[in-house]
């Protein structure tokens, strides 16, 4: 006999049970069966029978996927999902359950309620005899526990008591004695107990308290920095990034987790994500310090350092390290570096073209489509796919890439984590946690898992790297004293004042500024901050850490805490790159997210990674960009677009940096008190103080729309400008 299969799927609607709602899909498989022998006698060609002599059989199976349910039902479904043909359920649950339950709560339900081999009678095995029931249940429990330990062993790291791990060990001793599972749990417990309770090794101790006498070591010593070869610097930055990214716990990236990081009691929340932020900011600050740290540098010398960093960025691109690549580009786009117009004029044309091409990777066009496509294209490829429009750069790239291939060492891919944080924040904002009846919305978790799965795929790819740490460079990198915002801006002005400001003709200046300005939208959703007087960042994380959205100016993440803070682009009235010169032919560049704001020239440039710095996501793009996460369909509410009676707005507090904001979902039923209360809650303020605040929409640099007390925000707002609001205390 010969067989062929054809599979079709059909929506089977919903099934509702007590405490759960299921999506049902009917899988119909058509089997064509034909007898080979005698086929030719019946007019068939070869072994194929004519259609009229083909036997068609159909098999229909039902796939049930839980859509919403109580915690008890979701945990029970861990044991029945395989039988319902929902094969990915266990992985999705384990990757996302921390958004709605604790490991202890899940473990107690799994072991005490459903894992009791003597009393359990959950649906799948209720009709089996006692022995079969016990065997089936033991296999199901073992399968779930094995997946949990494989995929999320960190859930059991609870020093010093390790209560969950001990509870699990006790269960295994009683129900599965001397099993491989029992041995595995014992080994994991010993491993945790032998390891020091330590924060994620961020490699970069950046606080001034760690430097003591090192501050005078001329962190920006050009000779010492120049002694490191470009590819060595890129490899060492990649080594550090890989070590940190591989340690990222995926659930730390969930919007509901990451958005809570600014609360006082959560200062240690999501440490693995914070570590990547620390490293990203350290790289960015290192770039700025090496360029500005030595006052005595001549213009040409400073330009050479910029060229060296561009070459290092290119080496990062060859290594598929998009994190340090973006950090370097962000630093070069920061206000203090961007405004060095005479220095930039000394950068060679070929290197500027290389810089433009690297910057274009992070263009905010179409929700950063270029970087998203490139990331997915190279996620599991052995080597980078380098294309250059400039022949000389193309030759150099291919030569360096060939050297990598000749070594026979494959490469992984280190992503810019902010892209994923943004997507997860947008999903968390757009989708409800609970549906009718108080059931947990598991469809939301399935959508989040699509993003989490990408992170896991890239983490796995990082195992392909074979990099050896260079202690000389790492020690140099660690002991750098980073410049503060005020210091970098002051040094930038001094460096520019020392140069001949007439070196540029108006035409060449405009051309250069326009060329550079198109490159500065690297952050996933960045908000160009308004110009403010130079002052120290307020303590306590008020500038960036306090946001669950990711905003940061296009040039840096504003964070007051050492681990997240970076340089905030601050512009001064004397800044030569102002709206008058930059935006003379375009005004505010809404496509690029740009710098033409009156409130500060370079403020929209660059972006230091602090996904907590201003927005719900951790990254937010310029105010003119409309972030639509790749995993979020257009039908979901998004920022800057009203759709089907809902949208997402961004609300900042008056008196704080305007890049510190919260993303809030509103509908066409919401009035001022509702939105104000939600904004206060998001900013961790007393929600009962609604009457003390007014909500205004920012229309332009000098115009605001003030809403009446009971106005409908959705219909009253100006939908032709950015959906940016300010919550201000009434006079």
From TrEMBL:
Keyword entries, A-Z: Guanine-nucleotide releasing factor
Extent of the signal sequence: none
Coiled coil as UniProt keyword: no
Pfam families per the UniProt record, alphabetical: RA, RasGEF, RasGEF_N
Record's compositionally biased regions (Low complexity): 593-607, 620-633
Disordered as annotated region, ranges: 527-633
UniProt biased composition (Polar residues): 544-557
GO BP: any one term: Ras protein signal transduction
GO cellular component, one term: plasma membrane
Residue ranges occupied by any Ras-associating domain in the UniProt entry: 645-731
Gene Ontology molecular function: any one: guanyl-nucleotide exchange factor activity
Residue span(s) of domain Ras-GEF: 229-498
Domain N-terminal Ras-GEF stretches: 62-193
Domain of life: Eukaryota
Protein name: RGL1 protein
Upper taxonomic lineage: Eukaryota, Metazoa, Chordata, Craniata, Vertebrata
